[in-house]
Amino acid sequence: MFGQHNLLAALLVIGTLKDFITGLRLVEVRIPNYVIKGSAAQLECLYDLDGEALYSVKWYKDGNEFYRYVPRDMPPAQTFLLPGVKVDLHNSSDAIVTLRDVNLNSAGRFRCEVSGEAPSFQTVTEHGDMVVVSLPDQGPPKISGGRPRYQIGDWVRINCTAGRSKPAVDLSWFVNGEAAEPQKLRKYDTIVSGRDHLETSVLGLQFRVEQKHFRNGDMKLKCVASLSTLYWRSNEESVEGDRPQKAPVLESRETVYASNSRADPVQASKSDSLLLARAPSALLLLALAAVTALAGGGGISVARHSHSKNKDHQEHDENGQEQENDKKSERVTADVDGGEAEELLVSELLALELELERSASRSSATQEQQQQQQQQRGMTVTAR
């Protein structure tokens, strides 16, 4: 009895191994991971009968049958109504099922089941998941919160918002072409809206501006929105860096000009002081020359007058000694008057020289004061 049970078990094991080795085998089930809303989807179920006859091929979505293919039936293909599933019978067979005009309800888990003919009715099955994608219809992602210019030390706080989609798209930030560090990212919850329950993705970027962020004076901030291999859009903003302003060239020129304008009066004052210092001596020499000329002129005038009288005395002897005495008296009076005038002129000139010397001394002191004030002003401008 025990031997009979062992024999039956052995035969069962051998039969099972035979089925795995030489029986029906499911080669591959191909389910597209992502399908764009409104497009067609092709489901494939590849099997190897290995000499057995095919009984049926059945397709299920989330556990519900929607397609059956039985070779001995007429027609062999048959569909069953299911929300979100529209089978294109003209492009479907035992190995391929084509879905047309897929929508968000078409997404789900699809399973292929292949069965062999009697007597074994061996069955193999495999499944795969399909996601229907509703792409954003609002163009590239939008960047908000940015400024046209940043200075070193400023904070960048910006957000990237993608259009409504299903599922939510993946967002990523790039700074000057390099992926932003994770600690600089600000993640927000996905926003679900509308009757179709579309999703909106938002990703923030926050960091303090440093010198390394500016390349050729610009900083490029780029946001990329992607969804598998079906969708890829980006938006980039280029912002300028405000460099610290240097001192205007005009200001430095004004400083130089001011120092030059201070130097010119000093130079002029030295020349004026020298001229004033030399003025008394020059005027005195000029005055003495005038006195000498005056005295000489008087002598000549007297001499000529005497010569004229002598000639008259020779021609007119009748005038006599009396007229000659009168002429001598006139010469003496003229000499006396000339001497007094000379002394008076010399006295006036000495007084004028003294006054000029005092004036020159006062002018020199005033110029020295002005020079000191100009130097103090120059030091103040330079310090500023």
Describe the structure.
Helices cover 40% and strands 30% of the residues. α2 (249-315) runs antiparallel to α3. It has 3 domains: 20-133, Immunoglobulin-like; 142-241, Immunoglobulin-like; 251-383. The chain has 384 residues and is of the alpha+beta class.
Throw out a few tags for this protein.
alpha+beta, Immunoglobulin-like, 384 residues, rod-shaped, 3 helices, 20 strands, six-stranded mixed beta sheet, five-stranded mixed beta sheet
Q: Please, how many helices?
A: 3
DSSP strand count: 20
Distance between the termini: 118 Å
Describe the global form. rod-shaped
Q: Using only CA atoms, what is the Rg?
A: 62 Å
Helix content: 25-40%
Mean of all residue-level pLDDT scores = 75
Unreliable residue stretches: 245-280, 294-319, 328-338
Let me know the largest β-sheet. 6 strands, mixed
Topology at a glance:
Blueprint: H1 2-22, E1 25-30, E2 34-36, E3 41-48, E4 54-61, E5 64-69, E6 77-79, E7 96-99, E8 108-116, E9 123-133, E10 142-144, E11 149-150, E12 155-161, E13 170-175, E14 178-179, E15 185-187, E16 191-193, E17 198-200, E18 202-208, E19 218-227, E20 231-241, H2 249-315, H3 320-383
Parallel strand pairs: 2-9, 11-20
Antiparallel strand pairs: 1-3, 3-7, 4-5, 4-8, 5-6, 8-9, 10-12, 12-18, 13-14, 13-19, 15-18, 16-17, 19-20
Helix pairs in contact: 2-3
Keywords: Membrane, Signal, Transmembrane, Transmembrane helix
Signal peptide: 1-23
Biased composition (Low complexity): 361-376
